[in-house]
Every structure is written in structure tokens, then in C-alpha cells.
Specification:
The complex is a heterotrimer of chains A (about 100), B (about 325) and C (about 260). Chain A has about 100 residues and is an alpha+beta fold. Helices cover about 20% and strands about 20% of the residues of chain A. In chain A, strand 1 and strand 2 form a beta hairpin. Chain B contains 12 helices and 2 strands. The longest helix of chain B is centred in the middle third of the chain and has 29 residues. Chain B is globular and about 75 Å long. Chain B starts with 16 loop residues before the first helix and ends with a helix. The model of chain B has no long low-confidence stretch (mean pLDDT about 90). With about 260 residues, chain C is an all-alpha fold. Helices cover about 70% and strands about 0% of the residues of chain C. The two termini of chain C are about 35 Å apart. In chain C, about 50% of the residues are buried. Classes of the chains: A alpha+beta (about 100), B mainly alpha (about 325), C mainly alpha (about 260). Chains in contact: A-B, A-C, B-C. Chains B and C meet through helix 2, helix 3, helix 6, helix 11 and helix 12 of B and helix 1, helix 2, helix 3, helix 6 and helix 7 of C.
Chain lengths: ~100, ~325, ~260
């Protein structure tokens, strides 16, 4: 077996977000490779919406996504845990006040 | 089953002591049925096992497009032609979801494809068998996709988030695949004498390779324990194989076809079907690359990749030109 | 059946066959690519177009069978005609060649189908109008896909540019037939069933000129010889394609699948 053709032109990775129906958020569906953003939209349409699973597609270069570090989960998310007053169930509203 | 050749040996040696508590925490999360996501801490062996398992599964989908794609131009009706194209399209799509899941673990699709094309990576043995007749298309849908579903449903609950989610998507699409295959066989079994013969012949050739899809017997699978501990593999090979046989025997009976196993019989006591011995030598030969179509399958994939290089290159060159044009307008 | 009825049915029959066979033959060609495309995503993109085209063929050929009135369904029409009875334009049966040639063939036909279907959506024939209305959406996407690729290949690397320019030179002569109106075309236009081909050609030419310009490709000169697959006079390629496509139906006559 001789030398293989080197593929120097590797298409970058895009993350795909699909809005399944009007009224819903865009949800992460997966990723795919494309040479440019318009191609990524077409690929997303062909890979992720064959069964009418989408009305809107967003594609983002994977390298453009900044993610929080799970190691920071404690400092990022823990403090919210004891701020229960942010949640409506924390407050006892008298029964007479019905619409709150 | 896409990982019959999975060899967990030779991966990272034991981790240093401070990693032990990370590993402990990791195992607790897995035991609690929490999902592990891409940036979470995971043992290197877990990561590498997953890369191999997911990529072998992806390669299987891609190579699997070939034996059936074979019949698109010769499908006997326009409806069957449409169904077959849609099915093969789905398989390609499954490959795409799986490569995408594998890439979350820090490997690139190009690296994985390179491994496949140079013969380093494995894919399911089943796709190294030929599809000489139209009935083979039905047999693949019925038996091969049937076996795949058996394996895939438990994987929807595997510990690694992206793989589990890809599997959920795949399982939703897979039952169409099995049904169209069975429907095809039913049509043949109820057809002319020649069609019935065609169906029986295909069943004779695909039955044993389908059973081999589940991998070697449990007694010989010494590397499953980690996979089961990490909830990457949820049932043993023999368990899944037995379940497949028990499901499929009545389906074959309904078709009026005979399974090519004279030792097949129902055991009233155990409430399972006993079946004859599998030729593991054939299985090993096929895995090694000596099956009927290994050479052709890889050659086809290599040709597609090499002949398409100028296209991929052109797309990148165009994207680069567009980038530069935008930049010079902005400047 | 009176002579006038026979002629009327025959024109419509032939016209619908032309439309249906165009989709059938082109869909058949694209089906050959599946599993062999330059990238996994392109396997899916080409398969998508193929499945749409076969779907169009089914509707159109079923309708043709009804017009004919001899009880032939979509498969009898698709699989059991003789070579000279297929009425697709010769362009559609040209071989795939490399991806570039496939893309060029696709753009030329997608643009034609889009211009045609847009106008057929208001056809006096309700069945054709319904098929066309559905097909317009599909064809819009087909042209977006194929046109996008023509631009990337035409304005990509030197190699890709050369390949598609050559493919364009090779396929261009087959486009003449698309707009050469004959008695059937004129009859259909007179009855408000089909648009005048001159109109379709205008729309087609402006789309093609636009995409060729963006792709930095040159429009080839017309060559004198014309093919007329739409009259059943085909190139050598159709015979091989039919032999493959018809194999099971011919070998097991009367069988159901």
C-alpha cells in the first residue's frame, strides 16, 4: 500500500441548532463539517431535518463557541442554589390574592 | 456489535493517586445514571474506548451504504427505489451523527476516516458480505437492522451524553429500516416460486453472519467488564444474540421461510430457542480482512475519498476567497 | 374514440412522459452516486435530490398511464417501455462523469425545471398544476444546492475550474433540445397547459448567465448538431441505463415487488 493522498483541506466543524417548531427554542442537534456557512446550512438541512424536524437552522463554527468549564461548576452555579428567594415558590401569598 | 474487534488492552496504564478520587467521583456519577458530557473529567481509558466504539459504529454505517446502495439503480419499482435511497441516506446520516459524537471526545473526523481507509479501524463484519440479489436488500433490512436495533436501544441509555443522544435519534429512524426489509421479504415470500426461492436463498446466506454481528461468545469476551462498568455496554453479546434469535424465529415462520439451522429448536423449559454452533473461524477471517467483500468495500470508500479530494479542496479554496473578499471590503 | 380525441390525448400523453422521464432518468443517474460522493454530506445532498426526482417521476408517469387509458401504472410505464418510447431530453441521460460534470448537468436541468414548474403551477391541466406546485419547492432547493456547488467549483481552484468548464463545454450542446419547440410543445401551449418554451428559455438563460458569472465560467458557443431524446432519439447511454434499471421487471415478468 503506497502513500495516501494527504487531505490538507479539511472542512471545519460547525455546531448545529434546530428550532423544531414555531414557539420553541433552537436546540443543539449535533455537528457537521462544511467549507463555509451556507454549505453548513444545507448540510444541516440534509442531515438533521429529513423528517420535517425543523423550521429554523443556526450553524456556528465550533471554534466560536465558548463553554463554561465543568471544573468551575461550583463557583459558577452553586451560589444560585441558596438564593431561593429568586424562585416564586419561596413566597407564601395569601389565598385571597389569586392572580399572583 | 459494531465493536466486535474492540480491544481495550493497550490503553493508558494506571493513573496517579490524585486521579483516583476523580475516578471515584466519575464512577459514582455513572452509577447514579448521570450523563457524562464532553468537557467532564473522564478516565483516558473511557475516552479512548468510546472513541473506538463510536467511530467503529460510524464506519459501519458508512460502509453499510454500499451493499444496499448497490441496488438503487436496479430496484424493481419506483416506490422501492425511493425507499431504498431514503434508507441509505439515513445510514449516511447516522454515520454523520456518530462521527459528530466521536468528535466531542477530541478526535477529528478526518483522522477517523484516515484510520478506516488505511485499514487500521474496524467496522461491522456484516457489511463484508455481498448482495448478489434483490432479496439480499430485504434480508439486510430485516436481519441486520433488526440485530442493530437490539444493540442500539440499550445504548440510548449509555453513560456518554452525545453518544446516547445520537443513539436516540438513530433508533427513531431505525425501525423504518427493519420494517421495509421485512415488507420486502414478505412480498417475495408471497410471490412467484422464483421470488420465494430468492428470499430463501438470501436468508440462508445472511442468517449466520447476522448472528455473528453480536460478537464473540461471552466466555471469550474478556474486555467487556470495563464497558459494562462504565455503562457503555449494557447487555452481554450472548444475551442480545439470544434475544434476537427468539424474536426472529417467529418472523421467519410467518414468512414461510426456513432458518438454515437444523439444530434450531424451542426449549420449553428455558423458554428460549436453542441454536446450532456458529463458525467463529469464518467470523475471525472476515474481521481480519478475508471476508468476501472486505477488499471491495474499502476500495470503494478509498476511491470516493481520493476522487473527491479536488472537490473538497475547491470548496475550501472558494471559502478562503470569500473570506478575503469580505475582509478587503471591510478594510 | 374519435381521431381528434386520440390526437389530443396523445399530445398530452407525450408531454407528460417528457416531464416524467426527465425526472426519472436524472433521478436514476443521481442514484448511482450514493456511497461514492466526495463527502458524506454530499452523499446525503445528492440522495435528497434523487429521492425528490423519483417522487416527481412517480406522480407524472402515473398520470401518463391514466391519460393513455390502457391500465398501465407508474411502474409499467417506467420499467417496460422500449428504448424509443422514453422521452427524456438527452441531457438527462448523459453519464455522471466526475462530481463537476454531475453538478453542471444538475444546474442546467434544475434551472430548466424551476422555470417550467413555476409556470406549470398555473396550467389549465389541474393534475400538472398540482404536481408542479409541489415540485417548485423541491426544485428551488435543488438549484440552490447545485448552483452553490457550481460556484464553489468554478471559483475554487484552477483544477476545479478547468474540470467544470470542460464539463460545461461537453454538456452545452444538449441544452438546445430543451427549448426547441415541436408540435407537441405548441399544442400544449395553445391549450394553456404548458408555457411557451421561448419564455422558459428567457428565464433559464438569465438564471444560467447569473450563476455562470458568479462561478467565473464562460458560456460555451452553440454547436450545430442537436439531439432529440424528447422524440425518442437517444444517445448511446440510455440503452445501458435501461438495461440496468429494467433488469428485475424484465427477468421476472408479472411479479409483484
Amino acid at each position: 500500500m503506497g502513500e495516501r493522498v494527504e487531505d490538507k483541506h479539511q472542512w471545519p466543524l460547525y455546531e448545529v441548532f434546530i428550532r423544531a417548531r414555531g414557539g420553541l427554542d433552537h436546540k443543539h442537534a449535533g455537528s457537521l463539517h462544511a467549507a463555509d456557512a451556507p454549505m453548513a446550512i444545507e448540510h444541516a438541512r440534509d442531515v438533521y431535518t429529513r423528517r420535517q424536524e425543523g423550521v429554523s437552522i443556526w450553524v456556528v463554527r465550533s471554534t466560536d463557541i465558548t463553554a463554561s468549564d465543568p471544573a468551575d461548576a461550583d463557583s459558577l452555579f452553586e451560589p444560585a442554589r441558596d438564593k431561593v428567594y429568586r424562585h416564586p415558590t419561596f413566597y407564601e401569598i395569601p389565598d385571597e390574592v389569586k392572580t399572583l | 456489535m459494531y465493536t466486535q474487534a474492540l480491544d481495550v488492552q493497550g490503553l493508558e496504564p494506571a493513573a496517579p493517586i490524585d486521579a483516583a478520587s476523580l475516578e471515584q467521583r466519575f464512577l459514582e456519577r455513572v452509577d447514579a445514571e448521570e450523563k457524562i458530557e464532553p468537557k467532564d473529567w473522564m478516565p483516558n481509558r473511557y475516552r479512548n474506548t468510546l472513541i473506538r466504539q463510536i467511530s467503529q459504529h460510524a464506519h459501519s454505517e458508512i460502509v453499510g451504504m454500499l451493499p444496499e446502495g448497490n441496488w438503487i439503480t436496479r430496484a424493481p419499482t419506483l416506490l422501492r427505489k425511493s425507499i431504498l435511497i431514503a434508507k441509505v441516506q439515513d445510514e449516511g446520516g447516522h454515520g454523520a451523527y456518530l462521527y459528530s459524537a466521536a468528535e466531542t471526545l477530541g478526535v477529528s473526523r478526518d483522522q477517523l476516516v484516515e484510520q478506516l481507509l488505511c485499514g487500521k479501524a474496524k467496522y461491522s463484519s456484516i457489511f463484508n458480505y455481498p448482495t448478489p440479489t434483490w432479496a439480499d436488500v430485504g434480508a439486510i433490512g430485516w436481519l441486520v437492522d433488526g440485530a442493530a436495533i437490539m444493540n442500539q436501544i440499550p445504548l440510548c441509555r449509555c453513560s456518554y451524553g452525545p453518544y446516547a443522544r445520537a443513539m436516540v435519534r438513530i433508533c427513531r429512524e431505525e425501525s423504518f429500516h427493519q420494517r421495509q426489509g421485512y415488507d420486502l421479504m414478505l412480498q417475495l415470500a408471497r410471490g412467484t416460486a422464483e421470488q420465494k426461492r430468492m428470499a430463501q436463498d438470501a436468508l440462508n446466506r445472511w442468517w449466520w453472519p447476522a448472528l455473528m454481528m453480536f460478537g464473540p461468545p461471552d466466555a471469550e469476551s474478556t474486555h467487556s467488564s470495563d464497558s459494562q462498568r462504565w455503562k457503555i455496554k449494557r447487555f452481554s453479546n450472548d444475551e442480545l444474540r439470544q434475544k434476537f434469535v427468539d424474536f426472529t424465529v417467529p418472523q421467519a415462520r410467518f414468512l414461510g421461510l426456513t432458518l438454515p439451522d437444523p439444530l434450531l429448536r424451542w426449549n420449553e423449559a428455558t423458554e428460549r430457542h436453542e441454536f446450532g454452533p456458529i463458525d467463529w473461524n469464518e467470523f475471525n477471517q472476515v474481521l481480519k480482512g478475508n471476508g468476501p467483500c472486505n477488499v471491495e468495500r474499502l476500495a470503494a470508500r478509498r476511491a470516493a475519498h481520493e476522487e473527491g479530494a479536488w472537490v473538497r479542496e475547491a470548496a475550501m479554496a472558494h471559502a478562503e476567497k470569500q473570506r478575503r473578499r469580505k475582509a478587503s471590503i471591510a478594510a | 374514440m374519435s381521431a381528434a380525441m386520440r390526437v389530443k390525448d396523445d399530445d398530452l400523453f407525450r408531454y407528460v412522459l417528457r416531464l416524467g422521464d426527465l425526472s426519472l432518468v436524472l433521478g436514476q443517474r443521481l442514484g448511482e452516486w450514493v456511497g461514492h460522493a466526495p463527502a458524506l454530506e454530499e452523499d446525503l445532498g445528492l440522495a435528497n435530490t434523487a429521492v425528490d426526482l423519483i417522487g416527481q417521476a412517480r406522480l407524472l408517469l402515473a398520470y401518463a398511464g391514466e391519460i393513455e387509458g390502457r391500465g398501465r401504472d407508474e411502474d409499467a410505464i417506467a420499467f417496460l417501455r422500449e428504448h424509443g418510447e422514453y422521452l427524456n431530453p438527452t441531457l438527462a441521460e448523459q453519464p455522471n462523469g466526475d462530481f463537476g460534470q454531475t453538478v453542471v448537468r444538475q444546474v442546467l436541468i434544475d434551472a430548466f425545471q424551476l422555470e417550467l414548474y413555476e409556470r406549470l403551477a398555473t396550467s389549465a391541466d389541474e393534475r400538472l398544476a398540482a404536481v408542479a406546485a409541489k415540485a417548485v419547492k423541491e426544485t428551488c432547493y435543488h438549484l440552490r444546492y447545485s448552483g452553490g456547488w457550481l460556484v464553489r467549483l468554478g471559483d475554487g481552484t484552477e483544477e476545479s475550474h478547468t474540470r467544470v468548464q470542460s464539463a460545461l463545454e461537453r454538456l452545452w450542446p444538449y441544452t438546445v433540445e430543451l427549448f426547441a419547440a415541436d408540435d407537441v410543445d405548441r399544442a400544449m401551449a395553445d391549450r394553456g397547459i404548458a408555457p411557451r418554451l421561448a419564455e422558459v428559455q428567457e428565464g433559464w438563460m438569465s438564471r444560467i448567465d447569473a450563476v455562470l458569472a458568479e462561478a467565473t465560467l464562460e458560456r460555451p458557443h452553440d454547436r450545430p448538431y442537436s439531439w432529440f431524446g424528447k422524440r425518442g432519439h437517444h444517445s448511446e447511454h440510455l440503452g445501458y441505463m435501461l438495461a440496468e434499471m429494467q433488469y428485475l421487471q424484465r427477468t421476472y415478468p408479472g411479479a409483484r415487488w
